[in-house]
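Dear Dr. H.,

I hope your travels went smoothly. While you were away I took the liberty of generating a structure for the chain from your last submission, since the lab meeting agenda had it listed for discussion. I wanted you to have the full record in hand beforehand rather than looking at slides cold. The sequence, exactly as received, is reproduced here:
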Amino acid sequence: MKQIVLVTAAVVICSIFCNACSKQAGSSQPLESKWMVTEMPGFTKEELMKVNAHIDLRNPENSTGSLDCNHLFWKTTTKNNGTIAFSQVNYTYKYCEGQMAMESKFVEIAPSITSYKLEGHFLYLYDKQGKQLIKAINPAWD
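The corresponding predicted structure, in token form, is as follows:
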């Protein structure tokens, strides 16, 4: 009887530990989600919300987003220790007069993103100096 209780306790503890390892500490949202961008250098929250600025990390091999006029796409690589890399960043080449600054800024900063933090329903993306480059919210949080 003691062995059954010990084995059951060990299984429960391992399950809890494995589940905790699959998410970053403090996170209640998976990284692999669609995220609404609420902060990015050079733009107000209102400007970002007006154009439905978002990034979609549900498919790491083909992450996508839209920050105004064009569609963005890239490859996302992550590790459980909070590191992240956006590579092969590109976008469609539709010209939209006066509306391309957000895409240009994202394409400029995306390769600099090296770490992330999930905090509740927020995603924070940082460069190697620890400077926050993007803040986003999971639109399905409530």
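Two observations you may find useful: Helices lie at 2-21, 45-50, 101-109. The first helix runs from residue 2 to 21.

With kind regards,
E. W.
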